[in-house]
What we know:
Strand order of the largest sheet of chain A: 6-7-8-3-9-10
Number of helices of chain A: 7
Oligomer: heterodimer
Helix content of chain B: over 70%
Strand content of chain A: 15-25%
Strand content of chain B: under 5%
Bound molecules: adenosine-5'-triphosphate, magnesium ion
Shape of chain B: globular
Structural class of chain B: mainly alpha
Helix content of chain A: 25-40%
Number of domains of chain B: 2
Order of helices and strands of chain B: HHHHHHHHHHHHHHHHH
Largest sheet of chain B: none
Amino acid sequence: xxxxxxxxxxxxxxxxxxxxxxxxxxxxxxxxxxxxxxxxxxxxxxxxxxxxxxxxxxxxxxxxxxxxxxxxxxxxxxxxxxxxxxxxxxxxxxxxxxxxxxxxxxxxxxxxxxxxxxxxxxxxxxxxxxxxxxxxxxxxxxxxxxxxxxxxxxxxxxxxxxxxxxxxxxxxxxxxxxxxxxxxxxxxxxxxxxxxxxxxxxxxxxxxxxxxxxxxxxxxxxxxxxxxxxxxx
Amino acid sequence: xxxxxxxxxxxxxxxxxxxxxxxxxxxxxxxxxxxxxxxxxxxxxxxxxxxxxxxxxxxxxxxxxxxxxxxxxxxxxxxxxxxxxxxxxxxxxxxxxxxxxxxxxxxxxxxxxxxxxxxxxxxxxxxxxxxxxxxxxxxxxxxxxxxxxxxxxxxxxxxxxxxxxxxxxxxxxxxxxxxxxxxxxxxxxxxxxxxxxxxxxxxxxxxxxxxxxxxxxxxxxxxxxxxxxxxxxxxxxxxxxxxxxxxxxxxxxxxxxxxxxxxxxxxxxxxxxxxxxxxxxxxxxxxxxxxxxxxxxxxxxxxxxxxxxxxxxxxxxxxxxxxxxxxxxxxxxxxxxxxxxxxxxxxxxxxxxxxxxxxxxxxxxxxxxxxxxxxxxxxxxxxxxxxxxxxxxxxxxxxxxxxxxxxxxxxxxxxxxxxxxxxxxxxxxxxxxxxxxxxxxxxxxxxxxxxxxxxxxxxxxxxxxx
Lengths: 233, 466
Ligand SMILES: Nc1ncnc2c1ncn2[C@@H]1O[C@H](COP(=O)(O)OP(=O)(O)OP(=O)(O)O)[C@@H](O)[C@H]1O
Ligand SMILES: [Mg+2]
């Protein structure tokens, strides 16, 4: 059985947030295969979020490489990395990623609008995605007027509206109760499988990690172990 | 072009969803543009009086407009009035900065490039100031028509409404005001939208800017030395040289003093902040922490005030000395001493206008700083710090760095005035000192005006809102 080439591959990532501080990442190695769901777990402060930010091109590592296909994300310009975020990657965090001034519909349409899609088309797709995540009824509301679970679904709809190659989710259900969390996770997994989107999912919750094909554990800024890799493909 | 239209649409959608503070910011910014355009247009009209575009030999009731040697002074005064207006617009840019930062970061996260984000912000300011500028033009033309009708046709006139509006200069002015304001906004927001994680890392406090406060302290010593040397030079009667030479020297020294005062405010904010933070009185403690955290914030919001104090004290002193001089040597000015007093009064009026714009800027600045710290203040209030202590802390935050620097500004102004060659007069003290005290009182009053907002803001319930 041949393994397909990884979608994103990070090698020997080192990242510190300023002189005198212990590095948040020290030689982390991780890859994300096309279409797989990868859970990243580990103790608080171990560097999971930093790893996700490096892989998604939100920040650049101090050293090491991040390959996306034939591209080096760690060397790409800010503009190119922004472009990737609105075309091929989606990001969801625990909170705060929605624009407070825009309605749910505009928020979901945002990556398309920024890319120059016509307003009508962008709103059409945005409406469909809101529907799929069960928050069509909230389309005209602004993030401040929604519940936490609804907000996370809108954030997911936005992350998926471009049918990205990769979805980066940093504790997307961290602020939700277990029922709401489960609903959001089911919707996420379903949508990702259907679009063939690979998911990198940070979580503290074993129940959430159970949705993944594979699990990587981060400790002290490095990937300490992986399980489940042999189970798939 | 298409990108621009999409960005403009987005800017509009963002604006519609914005909270009240954002609309306030844009309204005030627009008003600033109205004022700035008005002053600059007035300057262009004065500039063409007596030229071949300006409707013949000037015959107005006021010699300031008649004498070709005095008109440049009038023009300069009108253009100088644009400065506090720009300072005001700058203050307005800071309203809601935190929230805007959050919004821009969220846009970046969704894939907007830094350029796109800056363009969206610039579009906002530019559009609002453009509208303000047009409104300023309309207002100017309307006022001109009203004055023209009011003063009738015959005899010398008060207002130069007979001079045609010099469109060749007026159009660039109407364009320049929004352009300047946009540039200024871009400078103020130069770091905005740099970090797509701005939203997510909201738990992290911004790093204290102590380093920059220290820089101010280091730069202060040579600056103060330079300014002192300049003042000393003035006093050892170098002013016996030519008129132009003396004027240049006086202006240079005033500018030097202003810069030194600015650095002085930042340095002083740091030092008084340190001292206050050691106090055991809660209000002083809170004010001290805040001053330490960002010493330049004080310098920024008090810059226009200090400049006003320096110029105001100087002007009041010069005015008194000139009046005394005219009284002392009545025979040499028998013909037209009213001409001088008129000029003085008009300058005083211009200064008052400048002062009111400056004070408005101060109010905006204080309100802004209260809104920005909403969560901190609410958290303090929730842990049981009485509202009165918070109010006192806000007042102290203004007073601690401002009072000493206004005192120094007064001393500088008086020294410059004292060096001017008015024979037979003595240096007036009463009026300049009263002016300084009045300015300080006005600044404190302006800060007090923001306290009702504090009372509403520093409510534990605020903590529930994001
Ligand atoms: N913006 C930042 N500035 C300074 N230090 C940071 C910043 N972001 C992260 N760190 C530091 O880097 C280390 C790793 O942080 P990171 O957020 O990656 O951990 P994490 O594994 O995601 O933790 P958690 O599970 O609590 O979210 C921590 O020690 C943290 O203090
Ligand atoms: Mg994290």
